[in-house]
Specification:
Blueprint lengths: L2 H29 L4 E16 L4 E15 L17 H27 L4 E10 L16 E5 L2 E2 L3 H8 L5 E8 L2 E9 L15 E7 L2 H27 L11 H14 L3 H23 L7 H18 L5 H32 L1
Antiparallel strand pairs: 1-2, 3-8, 4-5, 4-6, 6-7
Helix pairs in contact: 1-2, 1-5, 1-6, 2-4, 2-6, 2-7, 4-6, 5-6, 5-8
Length: 353
């Protein structure tokens, strides 16, 4: 396949991410009895529209976006089925449904990818290399499974060597041993030399489990948890200034990266695997980012909804939702400005690389 075809595939997959997010809001709103005025995939001029019983279904020309417009979303309404007239728990459910569907899509994609695997490496120690200094009564035992290293949960076998390589070689370990958690504090773990080996190693032999429906589901879930940790680390890097805004990528940059990933693969099968794996990561990324407590994002709407609920409970007066709408409108302007900056930077980067 050519780079252009991979780019088309990436655009379709990105559209799927947006569509499944908005479908989450749509399905939850319908289930809660909220009137949905329009369900749109894409932004800009409509290329197809169909009027349902009460909802207008639209397909718009720009694939990066979409929306689920509900009655009374940011304003007072006399309609008992309006969004603002629903109990707080229903509104929170509707707002969280989009992120939930993104996460679920990411999980389903990883399950599909892992369904072709023969087995998976585990974080369990099944043996030690001869002379390993860490195998002792007070140290590590055969059958131990790494659960946490320095407070960080172990999801994948590769986490063990990654986390052990950090710091000065002295770690706090939490192990699963005979069904119980065992803690080893300030335990020194550094690579050492072994006879016949060209480089220093820890001297561990890790376990292997065959692919079954249970292990596929477990490893797919752990992979999505790992994705979530990558997002958290990325946000931490951004907040502390170790990553600049110019280094972020928007839809254009992501599509270009996915196309490059496909083109760099040795086979078409590898290309599809890598692109869908990246799609799963982006899906989990979107789920987490959308729940940040920032205006215009779903998490910001939930946060302000909870604040409004507290104020109304204390004062006994219902607040005008229009004020919340002003906050989200301001947040949307800033968000669109940031997206425009990132998009222009992505385009410049593509044409100058």
């Amino acid at each position: 396949m050519t780079s252009a075809l991979y780019a088309i595939l990436a655009i379709l997959l990105f559209g799927l991410l947006v569509g499944i997010h908005e479908f989450g809001h749509f399905a939850a709103a319908k289930a809660c009895g909220v009137k949905v005025l329009e369900f749109s995939l894409g932004m800009g001029p409509a290329i197809f529209q169909k009027q349902g019983k009460e909802t207008l279904y639209s397909l718009r020309i720009v694939p990066f976006g979409g929306y689920c417009a509900m009655a009374g979303e940011d304003e007072s309404s006399n309609d008992p089925r309006a969004f603002t007239n629903q109990p707080h728990w229903k509104r929170i459910l509707i707002l969280c449904a989009g992120a939930f569907m993104n996460f679920l899509l990411g999980l389903v994609i990883v399950i599909c990818l892992y369904s072709t695997a023969y087995g998976f490496r585990t974080a369990q120690l099944v043996d030690f290399m001869p002379g390993c200094p860490y195998a002792s009564e007070e140290g590590l035992h055969k059958g131990d499974e790494f659960y946490k290293i320095d407070g960080k949960r172990i999801y994948m076998q590769m986490d063990v060597t990654d986390f052990l390589a950090q710091g000065d070689g002295v770690h706090d370990l939490v192990l699963l041993r005979d069904g119980k958690k065992v803690t080893l504090e300030k335990f020194k773990l550094v690579p050492v030399e072994y006879e016949g080996q060209t480089q220093k190693m820890y001297g561990f032999y890790f376990g292997y489990e065959e692919a079954t429906p249970r292990t596929v589901l477990k490893n797919a879930w752990n992979t999505c948890m790992e994705f979530g940790r990558w997002v958290k680390l990325g946000l931490d890097e951004l907040i502390h200034g170790r990553v600049k805004v110019e280094e972020l990528s928007g839809p254009v940059g992501i599509v270009d990266l996915m196309a490059e990933t496909g083109e760099a693969a040795e086979t078409t099968g590898d290309a599809f695997y890598n692109i869908f794996y990246m799609t799963a990561f982006i899906a989990v990324n979107l789920a987490i980012m959308n729940m940040l407590p920032l205006p215009a994002l779903d998490g910001g709407r939930v946060f302000l909804l909870l604040v409004t609920w507290v104020i109304e409970s204390v004062t006994g007066k219902k607040l005008n939702p229009r004020y919340e709408g002003y906050i989200h409108a301001a947040g949307m302007v800033l968000l669109l400005a940031l997206m425009a900056f990132i998009m222009l930077h992505d385009i410049w980067r593509i044409f100058t690389k």
